[in-house]
Amino acid sequence: MKKSLVLFLAVLIFPRSTYAQEPFYSNTHMGENYKIFLTEKLLLEYIVYKFKTRVEFEKMDDSKKKYIKTSGWRLANCSKSTIDGKLIPAIPRYGSERGLPNLIREICGDGF
User: Fold this and answer.
1) 76: exposed, middle or buried (Cβ count in 10 Å: 0-12, 13-18, 19+)
2) Which pLDDT belongs to residue 12?
3) What letter would DSSP give residue 75?
């Protein structure tokens, strides 16, 4: 009984990590297809997550060159809908905001 209780508490206390196999966002920009993956997600506080993303780029021309870029650790606050302190809009207004609403939903879930 005590062992199962200790195991249960350890699961609750230690941060959890997730690894995505499916992209949460994909698009094409200036002749390159790209896919964005959430590679790691750790719960820091009740609604604050630390996460990393990976982007896979692939040229659409005959070369089919592919390269991967991994981000450093970033912070997402689900109650404020922010990533690294910047507010994430529900609908992207600019090209640089594409994929960010999908990212905050992937991290926090659809309820936020």
Assistant:
1) buried
2) 41
3) E
Q: Which residues pair with 38 in a beta bridge?
A: 53
Torsion of CA 98, 61, 72, 104, to 10 degrees: 20
Cβ(78)–Cβ(105) below 8 Å: no
∠ Cα 28 17 10 (to 5°): 165
**Structure-derived torsion over alpha carbons of residues 69, 35, 98, 78, reported in degrees to the nearest 10:** -80
Compute the distance between CA of residue 3 and CA of residue 9 in angstroms, rounded to an integer: 10
pTM over 0.85: no
Helix locations, 1-112, DSSP H:
2-13, 100-108
